């Protein structure tokens, strides 16, 4: 018999996955109706990865995220309103509208930010782990990145150092089968996990559509990383439902509709987890439907709020270029 | 007052700040037991241990990125980049990540780190170990750039750099490591954005950075022998730049040469000259002139290398022509 505390965690994971899906559906609508400046990259289909991992983290633990980062941001605890405000360039956004979709950061929940440079945050996550150890904080850092980022040299430089120094960092490679419009097997020679293993890093491959499998593995590795047994590497096999970005509509030239519908109908992380929850008798189908309805309502409300919210004042354009330093600390004895 | 080398001054600054603040640490190649190839950090590992004087593999982008992440989460890393020429390897982490994080996060995250590296030709080190690349980073909003001209500046600016809540790149002239200057025993800091008038004068302003301050001072001596009074100014930091002091001087002297060891083309000499032209044009009796390094890769042969950087004689010669009101170019 499953523990009640597990059920609580299961329902939280279910809800968080639905929240990500709802967020992305709304973001896509904002793009299609020309209400959102710029482009954005949808996380839909990959929800179990961010949620399975972040459910195993505390809010002090750090993550670094990617251009496809809304899922990580929601899973790490962010609120819809500030997120939509950021996507729309509004003052109330997490970054006062200065970052947008590709740079959304939520320091209050340990999200050190999305990154528009593929592989650009590998060092940041590793440094956050080094800092956690130096400060004795007990925090763990998780670095999210795509299969495409495994082609960046920076990854190998920092994994080498993380392994040498046994840093509490987890490299989470979301292998969604594509980097932009190119299949992963065309850009990745050999095995991705073997690359981490070459540094002596324990590496795992897991079904990224199975939130329980992801969470179970993450719980173990994160606990071990906290004890100084890190770093670890996880390759999470997953799939993105939308195009590379919201504007990538006609994509038959690089992947088939059959392939897409196979993943959506047979391997959807939310549907499958919802079915499992009801099959186990942990929750009634109506309860899940009620969760879905609540979450979608929240998302719609947040969009309406963000659309009506104010843009930053023009005077903010040259604010935050430099951080203030207390003049007292710059004096002798300061 | 006691005199110490620039190398010792940097070492003292880092040691003092590491004693003061446990979040400060050094990261780079051969920084610990070796104390860097220039021996600038010798002795630090004995006092602070290998947890705070961290030797890395030869992976500049990697340890630069690690420093950015550490800085974002409560530490104050001092990144040791063995040669300024290796800046090209760390540009993404420095310019796309460190420089922009505070802005992109709407002021929520900050990156208090120091990247200490070097500059300067005429060491017979050829094109990949001799460049002065400060203009490259000065171009990127979000970075601060300090250019110490002596042991005194090296210590005071380093201490400020470490306490700053922003990424600071500090360029030490590698030919000056053994040069001594008076440095007080007592603690002091040099604020950023405050130029230093090294010598007062009335006929022409010579603005020099780093080792070019000495070149300007020697040029001023030559000029004094010719009855020309040159004012010498060291901006000390080029970002932020103390425009007010430079402008006040140029308005007084009505002429200026900006001397710097970076390439002249698209370099900081042009930037400073343009600001003086824009803001002091009606006070000028001659065009503000630039003297940077030649726009060639730094050659190895001493016979060639010495031609590429400004010298006191060439600065004095140009200054004399400006003061004489000579046309520099055919009209
Ligand atoms: C350094 C760099 N090169 C190229 C790009 C353009 N780009 C943006 S996303 C992307 C694909 C990344 O693929 P992957 O890492 O697998 O992430 P996914 O988009 O599949 O989530 C590319 C090439 C970039 N942003 N940064
Ligand atoms: Mg991918």
Automatic annotation (TrEMBL), chain A:
GO terms for molecular function: pyruvate dehydrogenase (acetyl-transferring) activity. It comes from the Bacteria. It is an enzyme of class 1 (oxidoreductase). Keywords: Oxidoreductase, Thiamine pyrophosphate. GO terms for biological process: pyruvate decarboxylation to acetyl-CoA. Residues 16-311 form the Dehydrogenase E1 component domain. Its EC number is 1.1.1.-. It catalyses: N(6)-[(R)-lipoyl]-L-lysyl-[protein] + pyruvate + H(+) = N(6)-[(R)-S(8)-acetyldihydrolipoyl]-L-lysyl-[protein] + CO2. The keyword Oxidoreductase applies. Its cofactor is thiamine diphosphate. The keyword Oxidoreductase applies. InterPro entries: DH_E1 (IPR001017), PDH_E1_Alpha_Subunit (IPR050642), THDP-binding (IPR029061). PANTHER family: PYRUVATE DEHYDROGENASE E1 COMPONENT SUBUNIT ALPHA, PYRUVATE DEHYDROGENASE E1 COMPONENT, ALPHA SUBUNIT BACTERIAL AND ORGANELLAR. The pyruvate dehydrogenase complex catalyzes the overall conversion of pyruvate to acetyl-CoA and CO(2). It contains multiple copies of three enzymatic components: pyruvate dehydrogenase (E1), dihydrolipoamide acetyltransferase (E2) and lipoamide dehydrogenase (E3). This is Acetoin:2,6-dichlorophenolindophenol oxidoreductase subunit alpha. It comes from Flavimaricola marinus. The gene is acoA_1.
TrEMBL record, chain B:
CDD domains: TPP_PYR_E1-PDHc-beta_like. One of its GO terms (molecular function) is pyruvate dehydrogenase (acetyl-transferring) activity. It holds the Pfam family Transket_pyr. Its EC number is 1.2.4.1. Keywords: Oxidoreductase, Pyruvate, Thiamine pyrophosphate. Its cofactor is thiamine diphosphate. The keyword rRNA-binding does not apply. Residues 4-179 form the Transketolase-like pyrimidine-binding domain. NCBIfam families: PRK09212.1. This is Pyruvate dehydrogenase E1 component subunit beta. It comes from Flavimaricola marinus.
């Amino acid at each position: 018999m499953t523990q009640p505390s597990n059920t609580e965690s299961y329902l939280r994971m279910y809800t968080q996955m639905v929240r990500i899906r709802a967020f992305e559906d709304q973001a896509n609508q904002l793009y299609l109706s020309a209400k959102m400046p710029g482009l954005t990259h949808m996380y839909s289909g990959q929800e179990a990865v961010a949620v399975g991992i972040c459910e195993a983290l505390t809010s002090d633990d750090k993550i670094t995220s990617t251009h496809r980062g809304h899922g990580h941001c929601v899973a790490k605890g962010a609120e819809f309103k500030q997120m939509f405000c950021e996507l729309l360039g509004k003052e109330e956004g997490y970054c006062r509208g200065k970052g947008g979709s590709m740079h959304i950061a939520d320091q209050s929940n340990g999200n050190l930010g999305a990154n528009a440079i593929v592989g650009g945050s590998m060092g940041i996550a590793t440094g956050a782990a080094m800092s956690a150890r130096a400060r004795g904080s007990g925090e763990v850092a998780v670095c999210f990145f795509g299969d495409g980022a495994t082609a960046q040299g920076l990854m190998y430089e920092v994994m080498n150092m993380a392994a040498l120094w046994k840093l509490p960092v987890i490299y989470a490679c979301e292998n969604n089968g594509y980097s932009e419009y190119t299949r992963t097997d065309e850009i990745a020679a050999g095995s991705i996990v073997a690359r981490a293993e070459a540094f002596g890093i324990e590496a795992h491959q897991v079904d990224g559509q199975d939130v329980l499998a992801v969470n179970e593995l993450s719980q173990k590795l994160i606990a071990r990383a906290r004890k100084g047994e890190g770093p670890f590497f996880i390759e999470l096999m997953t799939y993105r439902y939308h195009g590379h970005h919201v504007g990538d509509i006609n994509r038959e030239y690089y992947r088939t509709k059959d392939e897409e519908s196979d993943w959506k109908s047979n391997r959807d992380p939310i549907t499958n987890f919802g079915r499992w929850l009801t099959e186990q008798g942990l929750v009634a189908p109506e309860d899940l439907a009620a969760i879905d309805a609540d979450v979608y309502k929240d998302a719609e409300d947040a969009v309406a709020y963000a659309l009506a919210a104010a843009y930053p004042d023009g005077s903010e354009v040259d604010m935050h270029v430099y951080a203030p330093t207390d003049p007292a600390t710059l004096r002798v004895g300061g | 007052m006691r005199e110490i080398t620039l190398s010792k001054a940097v070492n003292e600054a880092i040691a003092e700040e590491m004693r003061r603040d446990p979040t400060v640490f050094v990261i780079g190649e051969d920084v610990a037991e070796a104390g860097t190839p220039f021996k600038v950090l010798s002795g630090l590992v004995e006092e602070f241990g290998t947890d705070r004087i961290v030797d890395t593999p030869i992976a500049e982008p990697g340890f630069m990125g690690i420093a950015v992440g550490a800085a974002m989460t409560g530490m104050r890393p001092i990144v040791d980049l063995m040669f300024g020429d290796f800046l090209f390897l760390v540009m993404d982490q420095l310019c796309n990540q460190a420089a922009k994080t505070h802005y992109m996060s709407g002021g929520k995250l900050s990156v208090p780190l120091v990247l200490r590296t070097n500059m300067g030709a005429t060491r017979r080190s050829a094109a990949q170990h001799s460049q002065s690349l400060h203009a490259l980073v000065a171009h990127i909003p979000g970075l601060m750039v300090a250019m110490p001209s002596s042991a005194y500046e090296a210590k005071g600016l380093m201490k400020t750099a470490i306490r700053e809540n922003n990424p600071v790149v500090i360029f030490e002239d590698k030919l000056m490591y053994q040069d001594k200057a008076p440095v007080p025993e007592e603690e002091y800091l040099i604020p950023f954005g405050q130029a230093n008038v090294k010598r007062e004068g009335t006929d022409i302003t010579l603005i020099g950075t780093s080792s070019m301050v000495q070149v300007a001072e020697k040029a001023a001596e030559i000029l004094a022998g010719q009855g020309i009074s040159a004012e010498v100014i060291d901006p000390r930091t080029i970002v932020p730049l103390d425009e007010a002091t430079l402008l006040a001087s140029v308005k007084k002297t009505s002429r200026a040469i900006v001397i710097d060891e970076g390439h002249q083309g698209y370099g900081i000499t042009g930037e400073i000259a343009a600001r003086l032209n824009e803001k002091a044009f009606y006070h000028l009796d001659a065009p503000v002139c630039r003297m940077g390094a030649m726009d060639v890769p730094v050659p190895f042969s001493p016979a060639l290398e010495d031609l590429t950087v400004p010298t006191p004689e060439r600065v004095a010669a140009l200054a004399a022509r400006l003061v004489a009101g000579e046309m520099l170019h055919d009209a």
